[in-house]
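hey so i finally got around to running the thing on that chain from the lab meeting. sorry it took forever, my laptop kept dying and i had to restart like 3 times. anyway pasting the input first so we r on the same page abt which one it is
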Amino acid sequence: MPHGGKYVGLRSPGSSQELELNWYPKRSKFYTKYRRGDELDHLAFGVGNVDAALQKLIKKGVEVAVSPSKAKGVTEVYVKDPDGIWIELLNW
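ok and heres what got predicted. didnt touch it at all, straight out
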């Protein structure tokens, strides 16, 4: 990850669903101090067109947390749900 974080993807054999686990260094804008419990970092969804999906969400009043970026052919954007949980959209 460009900000120095690490991730690993977990997938059951024969499944198309992937669980991604992330770690962020303290200097990263994504870092939050760990709190014991069932805290959720964010959810991610693969979409066919990130820009089109984002425009639909903006029209519905969704707040953009991190503007769209592109790295290694993958476009991603982060928005916030009504509870403030980040939702990541990826074109994949």
